[in-house]
Each structure stands twice: as C-alpha cells, then as structure tokens.
Amino acid sequence: MPAYWVARSKINDPAEYKKYTDLVPGIIAKYGGKVLARGGRHQVMEGPHKFHRFIVIEFPTLAQGVSCFTSPEYDAAAAFRRAGAGEVETVIVEGGDAT
Fold first, then answer.
1. Is there a domain that residue 62 lies in?
2. pLDDT tens digits for range 28-56
3. Which of 2, 15, 17, 89 qualifies as a cystine partner to 95, CB 3.0-4.6 A?
4. Is residue 33 part of a domain?
5. Within a 13 Å sphere around the CA of 22, how many CA atoms are in the beta-carbon half?
6. What is the domain extent for residue 35?
7. How far from chain centre, in Å, is Cα 43?
8. Do residues 62 and 2 make contact, with C-beta atoms less than 8 angstroms apart?
9. What is the pTM of this model?
C-alpha cells in the first residue's frame, strides 16, 4: 500500500536550505519515492499560516518512507535545515481506504 510523506516548511535561510534541497531528490529516489508536489502554489484552508512551502512524496510502502526519513544520508542532508535554515513538520501516512 502506498504511503505519503507530507511536509510543510518555512525557509529561514534560502542559501543554506538549498544545500538540503539539492541533496534530497537523489535520496528520495533511492528509497523508491516520487515527488508529487514540491513548493507549488497553495491555499491554506485551515491552520497556521507560518509555513510557505508544502511537499508531498509518494513511497511504495510506509516502511520505505520511514526508512528514507531515518536514513543516514537523509539525516546528513537535513542537518543543513535543522541548523536553522528552515523549520519543517513532516508526517508519513499510509494511503488506502479511509473507512
């Protein structure tokens, strides 16, 4: 069953944040992920307007999405934004029947 990595971010330092975003596509691909949305136009319907960038990535399974996020290579890339270049909230949710 597919799973979706859903993140919302606020970029505080574009140059440092770019060091992170330059590395991530290859890491995502290594774990079977496919970017569905990354930084496109959006409309916040409810909730805080703190975040300015939204990301949706599809993985074949929840385990692959979690493995990607917890991998050493993703951790190394995320260190750029975690050092203050950006603020991010991320969830990975399994798709499928909502009943």
1. yes
2. 999 999 999 998 899 999 988 999 999 99
3. 2
4. yes
5. 7
6. 3-89
7. 18
8. no
9. 0.89
